[in-house]
Amino acid sequence: MRNDPLIFEQGRPGRRAAAQAPGDFPVGAGIPDRFLRAGPARLPEVSELQVVRHYTRLSQKNFSIDTQFYPLGSCTMKYNPRGCNRLAMLPGFLDRHPWAPDSVSQGVMSCLHDLQEMLAEVTGMAGVSLTPMAGAQGEFAGVAMIRAYHLARGDEARNEILVPDAAHGTNPATAVMCGYKVREIPTDRDGDVDLEALKQALGPQTAGIMLTNPSTLGVFERRITEMAELVHKAGGLLYYDGANLNAILGKARPGDMGFDVIHMNLHKTFSTPHGGGGPGSGAIGVSKRLLPHMPVPVVAREGEAYRWLTERDLPQTIGRLSAFMGNTGVVLRAYVYARMLGREGMGRVADFATLNANYLMCRLRAEGFQVWFPQRRASHEFIISLKQEAKELGATAMDFAKRLLDYGYHAPTAYFPLLVPECLLIEPTETETREELDGFVEAMVCIRDEARRDPDYLKQAPYTLPVRRLDEVRAAKELDLKWLPGTPALKEQE
Amino acid sequence: MRNDPLIFEQGRPGRRAAAQAPGDFPVGAGIPDRFLRAGPARLPEVSELQVVRHYTRLSQKNFSIDTQFYPLGSCTMKYNPRGCNRLAMLPGFLDRHPWAPDSVSQGVMSCLHDLQEMLAEVTGMAGVSLTPMAGAQGEFAGVAMIRAYHLARGDEARNEILVPDAAHGTNPATAVMCGYKVREIPTDRDGDVDLEALKQALGPQTAGIMLTNPSTLGVFERRITEMAELVHKAGGLLYYDGANLNAILGKARPGDMGFDVIHMNLHKTFSTPHGGGGPGSGAIGVSKRLLPHMPVPVVAREGEAYRWLTERDLPQTIGRLSAFMGNTGVVLRAYVYARMLGREGMGRVADFATLNANYLMCRLRAEGFQVWFPQRRASHEFIISLKQEAKELGATAMDFAKRLLDYGYHAPTAYFPLLVPECLLIEPTETETREELDGFVEAMVCIRDEARRDPDYLKQAPYTLPVRRLDEVRAAKELDLKWLPGTPALKEQE
Amino acid sequence: MPFIPHTQEDIDAMLEVIGAADLESLFDEIPVGLKGHPLSSLPEAMSEQAVTRLMQERSARDVCGPCFIGAGAYRHHIPAAVWELTTRGEFYSAYTPYQAEASQGTLQLLYEFQSMMTGLTAMDVSNASLYDGASALAEAILMAIRANRRASSRRVLVAGTLHPVYRQVAESIVGAQGIVLETLEAPLRDGALDAEAMAALDGAAAVVVQQPNFYGRLEDVDMLTDQAHGAGALVIAVVNPVAMALLRPPGNWGRDGADIVCGEGQPLGVPLSSGGPYFGFLCARQAFVRQMPGRIVGRTVDLEGTPGYTLTLQAREQHIRRSKATSNICTNQGLMVTAATIYMALLGGEGLRRVALACHHNTVSLTEQLCTLSGVRPLHQGPCFHERVLELPRPASQIIERLAAVGVLAGYDLGRHDPDMANCLLVCATELITGDDIARYRQALEAVLREEAA
Amino acid sequence: MPFIPHTQEDIDAMLEVIGAADLESLFDEIPVGLKGHPLSSLPEAMSEQAVTRLMQERSARDVCGPCFIGAGAYRHHIPAAVWELTTRGEFYSAYTPYQAEASQGTLQLLYEFQSMMTGLTAMDVSNASLYDGASALAEAILMAIRANRRASSRRVLVAGTLHPVYRQVAESIVGAQGIVLETLEAPLRDGALDAEAMAALDGAAAVVVQQPNFYGRLEDVDMLTDQAHGAGALVIAVVNPVAMALLRPPGNWGRDGADIVCGEGQPLGVPLSSGGPYFGFLCARQAFVRQMPGRIVGRTVDLEGTPGYTLTLQAREQHIRRSKATSNICTNQGLMVTAATIYMALLGGEGLRRVALACHHNTVSLTEQLCTLSGVRPLHQGPCFHERVLELPRPASQIIERLAAVGVLAGYDLGRHDPDMANCLLVCATELITGDDIARYRQALEAVLREEAA
Ligand SMILES: Cc1ncc(COP(=O)(O)O)c(C=O)c1O
Ligand SMILES: Cc1ncc(COP(=O)(O)O)c(C=O)c1O
């Protein structure tokens, strides 16, 4: 596979993409010398063709939804409709300044308002704020609102957030950022939260609990109503981590389950792209009691006109989480997607995400892989454990993951949730065909055969990607975090 | 390399990209049954994600300017600025119906008019028509005008077009389409047209001569003025095949050389993309005497307003060559490019195209490759012959071409012009860096070394592409020109 | 220096390798008198920023609002995926796939395109595009002359209901080769050909029929095809590809089907863009494949037996056969074919049928609505696809201008081609037209008619 | 069923494999009472065609013409190549590059981004983005508290000239952890901090300084940095990245340079888009690298010794360290970083310097022109970058509305944050503003002022 030198290494002093810069103005008297930088900033000096060619080639080295099946559990890597991208990038949306007066911004505001309403309806919440910029920031907003709620009632002793041991890392990290202590609640044999443990953990120190349902174990928390009652009785509130909303969209609503606050990952359930790491949108929905604490701004409709609600309108708000109003462009993509799904389409998402997951689970089980909760229905995702393969063949979940790449499949999420040994968390999503799922099963079977024939072979996978397996230990030990002039060029590859 | 089944093979009966079709209307009484087709058209039945994934993956199997150096002689594969693409696709341009009244089309018409003027100036011609849809159609228009000119003067005996033996295949093919006989003129030892032979060929039967200058041999026809005089004296006209205009853009003008008509390949000199085969634009320029015969429509400026000139304005026109006015979208790209180059930029194209070609030629010569006209200056392209390598090592131009692909370089044009044995026609263009040229030289040297070590190795190249060398003979013998239901799926590859 | 990567250091070093003193001396073979024209009328260079502003301003001047014009170019919904994929650099900036191994993406796509077009037209073989519909007809006529070995004449009969511009283009292109186009005129009843028209057939090498025809009317293609074949003429069908998802495809016309099919590919995912780039398509019987103009892709295998795709039958083409080629075409409309292939894959047979039906349905609504205005009536009564001729109480050209001024693009003025039809307007409504659009048109037309009456 | 590929046959076969009777029974673990809410207020599904029309109509309602607003978001020229490349599927639809071998494209790009940002700021290390500039400041403050082992306090001093919304966001985020933000107020001379302001420093863990500051003014960053360091506080610089191509970068402020640098990345090739998605950047000294929030990419080798790229120092992050992570951030703003990296590569150091200079130059012209109107004058005299405060004879809010009505976006109303500044307007002119735009602004403002005076 070809080597692509760093863009810096392709530069030459004085080379420029000359069509892109304006003419050269003198600095003038406006800015005294002492404010100016001594030399030019160290940026690449390359031509426009070099830039286009370099980044086109780099892009080809990525796996992506647009090129591969990506059954990455907890991440909902489904098709990102191209229509959403194009419509969110219409000039009127793209060029609007965030401080443009409401009077000349009714178009975009109407979209945001519509989406607020749609999300409230589909989650069963009383109000929605679109400002959080990703799931984790939605979590922050949610827990901050829980805190604001208790404090507003003078209930200052609550200093603990409960988190199941299967929870995503952002949950405990968020609780801490909001000033809380974290208490872990164990999972029972069947994959549900251990209700006894929960009861024991609840108390006057309990601010709330963060749950996702179905959980990151891929199963629906069956006693959710009971749990909600317990937590509420203890004076705590329930937070719904909406990363798994795809599993129940249009089928069941967190609000009906008793949750007080929810964040949605619009970049999962509402199909906005992940962009190689972001941006997302972590829109939050709240029950009535948290309405006063929502993060601002939020769009309100007054007669035919839309206007921004700010601190003035919501004096008890937890405040602002971004300089403007969050990731509007992402939100617009989600809005277009929601309109294309419509009422009927919402439930179909859950239907087919669940169908695909259960089908894939059953097929893998039939091929002899260990499904972790075999007695349970899969939600939109499920777990298999390669404990057996690791013990008998020395082929770990990591080895399977890396070898899958050679077969043209992105690896499922590996080693999460932490409590299942050698696990793969597999989420096929609703937009994949049955043939694709069958191909994945076939690849898993082939890989196990390879492991049986030669366990070492998998250890060295992948074989067909731009690089072989990378030395991550070295990366962390011998930190090399940026290019510097004079650094030796990358080793030449053919 | 992965195999991508045909899009048809990925379909299932009843599968659809449902967001893309309108609702289902009844046929109604409007169309009686006997007009209707019996069953649905045989098109793929696939989901939107399948389509996006399939064509994204297919695209990655192509070489292109955006990913590789592409020194394809006679084709001017230079950087296609992305700004040209974006601006030609602005909604106002994209959505305009070709029959929209002039009164609401002044924006696009002003661009076309500006470009007509710019092209006339840079080629030294009196008028320009943008309607021909590619070089070959420009040639057709040009030769048809020559014919119209003679006929209009009652000069009906002229039935022959002269074409140098080095000419591009479209030249003789065009002459025949215009009803002419073709007479070939040989090339002399130095790469110029054999002037004696030309003199002998000229006569009252001569309608004209088709030339490109610099010629497809990569050298400038030095006695062009003399040739023009000879042809004109014989009553013939001179046609300039502008495929090589990149070599002299802004430096010398065909009009000044005595040409009566020229076509320009806007998809070469003016950097619009080749799109995997097209579209192009073969705009033509004419001297005063051919003005009345230009193909319509053409944009005229009257005061502040633009209007289309049609058959009514140009009763002696050769007529229309397309239903509307040619490849407007391509022409707009060329216009943006021309505006970005501006006056100064035109000459720079020729300067650096020529610098790159001469540098590459000198470096290859220094490495021992046989430059075909070593005593000549290269224009924007030049020829090397691998006669020696073919004889001594059994490594043909074809073998070098195929092996270059493995090195990440698109092959130069091979076996054209026909008169040079085992030739590669190499055109680096002005937008490539010196480093890229050096890399190409290095690859050529390596390949020759490989041939010396093991002549058979090259015969099997390429090795690293999606397919190995293809059986073209079989393709032509056992015609397989379309997918049919039930055709065996492609052999599975890993 | 936009797009030029050379630094001064590069230039100096390269000139040294060449042994030239300066850039100018690289042009020392060009006679001095031919060099150095000042190009003084050319404008200064603009940055991308500046030219962006210029083009935005110009494009904003042009009215594109509800469009009821057809007459050869049709505004359809184009799924966003089509052009987001088509403009990928690997499609956009690739050359003609002569190096097959380095062009499998484009080649497989073209093979799929050929498969789709033959599916749509029910023909045996398809090429990989010609310039546009009108020039494709010219090529089809030349091809028919080559293919019809039985006919000795160079006479080709052309339906009087064919798009008149197609006729003009065909004449411009085939005229020089001594081919004579005659009109199938005769009783032009209700905007479509009838059996009597076919009397003129005798000895013609080919007949050109358009379905739906220029007036939007459906022709009795079975009868026409059989009669032509009976007289020894080949049938050249000019068809709208979207209509083919609904209507009987030329391969199934009459007893034996049409012989050559061509048309404008624009409706398949290509934007209006002032008339181009579009693409012409051409399909034919297997027997005529060696007479076809344009590129053709075939499936073959590589030296390991892996299937792959390559241009084939290149001996028909100018770069091999030169003056004996089937056509002079070289660069075609590849990128448009890329878009069309993706479009057809997204729509599928059923989706495209629905598009066709929605167009038909909207055109019926449109004509019904407009014909409630006094003085407006349909000129023909027979079945139409998505266009129809309306007779107005005033010249269509005036009405068109007046409506354009209020942002409605009313249709195509038939007076352009026939002074007798000066009051006739050809209207079209595709699936993009909404009830609101139709109401707006009706209202604007009503206002103009009332005003003029006053 | 948009986006669902299942045919009825697929569904039946799959249910059989599962052993379920129907789709509904796949949800049999969900208590019955929780299912089946009718969602009656949701609208019906729309086709892409219909939603395209809807969005086109809505987007067309919003005025975007000449924009003189800045205040944290800036309209710059974005080369077409930036988003044509950024929206390539392989960038657009990829996940976070946890599987390094399958993500070398994104990872190498991020490594290049880190190299560019450290080049621009003259700092040692950069992360691979945070959400936006304001939230990046919050993270920088949390990081400073962790990093400044010398300081025992959780007091952070914030320049009174910092963007007030940044201050609000930082408070929303760091407040819960007992961190107190205090204002560096004192003599706010001519819109910038002076030495006296720094008296309050004692015992602070960190100082936050913005360059250029909220009012567009250039701060005396050398003095501020040295004084802060003298008092044992870390210096957190909030900077505009375009300005950094022209101004002294934080790594070179004072004797030792700033300690942490953050800011809004939007000016680097990211469209305004109503405020997001943008991206926050964060750079720091090498010593603090393990305290950084967000992802970091490192270069390493594969098992054949080939260089490659991977996420590194993941032990700082929530997916490994959970409640002890440096931040809860997971999804960041990767795609915006892709755009910014391509933008910086296209502009280069020289190009970006020219952009900065053109902005400065245009802002000087703008303020000069507007200040020829009676009653309009600059509030501050000292050096500015590309924003300046103008004092008007009326409330800025009124003027802004009036000008918006004629399509001019006049600036930012400082009365939002400070009633004393109700007549103050913060204006900005980037390189996109032309002389015509300025003339149009001046004319419109003149008309409004005259009218109101009358
Ligand atoms: C279960 C769960 N919760 C929360 C998150 C955090 O969301 P984000 O990455 O948008 O911050 C994720 C995302 O990976 C998740 O899978
Ligand atoms: C020398 C020459 N003439 C004519 C042509 C024909 O141009 P086009 O392919 O645009 O029809 C070409 C294109 O390859 C060429 O190289």
Describe the structure.
- The complex is a heterotetramer, with two copies of chain A (494 residues) and two copies of chain C (454 residues).
- With 494 residues, chain A is α/β, with parallel strands linked by helices.
- Chain A folds into three domains: 7-59, no CATH class; 83-342, Aspartate Aminotransferase, domain 2; 349-475, Aspartate Aminotransferase, domain 1 (Alpha-Beta Complex), CATH 3.90.1150.10.
- Helices cover 35% and strands 11% of the residues of chain A.
- Chain A has 15 helices and 13 strands.
- Chain A has helices at residues 48-59, 82-88, 91-94, 106-123, 135-152, 170-177, 195-201, 224-233, 254-257, 328-366, 387-393, 397-406, 434-453, 455-459, 472-477, and strands at 127-129, 160-164, 181-185, 206-211, 237-242, 261-264, 284-286, 298-302, 305-309, 370-371, 382-385, 413-414, 423-426.
- In chain A, helix 4 runs parallel beside helix 10 and helix 5 packs across helix 6.
- Chain A is globular and about 75 Å long.
- The relative contact order of chain A is 0.14.
- The model of chain A is unreliable at 489-494 (pLDDT under 50).
- In chain C, 35% of the residues lie in helices and 13% in strands.
- The mean pLDDT of chain C is 95.
- Chains A and D meet through helix 1, helix 2, helix 3, helix 4 and helix 5 of A and helix 1, helix 2, helix 3, helix 4 and helix 5 of D.
- Bound molecules: pyridoxal-5'-phosphate (PLP) (2 copies).
- Residues 74-75, 134-136, 168, 170, 212, 216, 241, 243, 265, 280, 282 of chain A line the site of one pyridoxal-5'-phosphate.
List the uncertain runs of chain C. Answer: none
Order of helices and strands of chain C: HHHHHEHEHEEHEEEEEHHEEHEEH
Regarding quaternary structure, what we see is heterotetramer
Q: CATH superfamily name of the largest domain in chain C? A: Type I PLP-dependent aspartate aminotransferase-like (Major domain)
Number of helices of chain C: 12
Largest interface: A-D, 205 and 200 residues
Q: Which range best describes the helical content of chain C: under 10%, 10-25%, 25-40%, 40-55%, 55-70% or over 70%?
A: 25-40%
Strand runs of chain A, count: 13
Largest sheet of chain A: 7 strands, mixed
Strand adjacency order, main sheet of chain C:
1-7-6-5-4-2-3
Mean pLDDT of chain A: 96
The SS-based structural class of chain C is: alpha/beta
Largest sheet composition of chain C: 7 strands, mixed
| Structure class of chain A | alpha/beta
Low-confidence segments of chain A, given as residue ranges, are: 489-494
Task: Tell me what the CATH architecture of the largest domain in chain C is.
Answer: 3-Layer(aba) Sandwich
Small-molecule binders: pyridoxal-5'-phosphate
CATH class categorisation of the largest domain in chain A: Alpha Beta
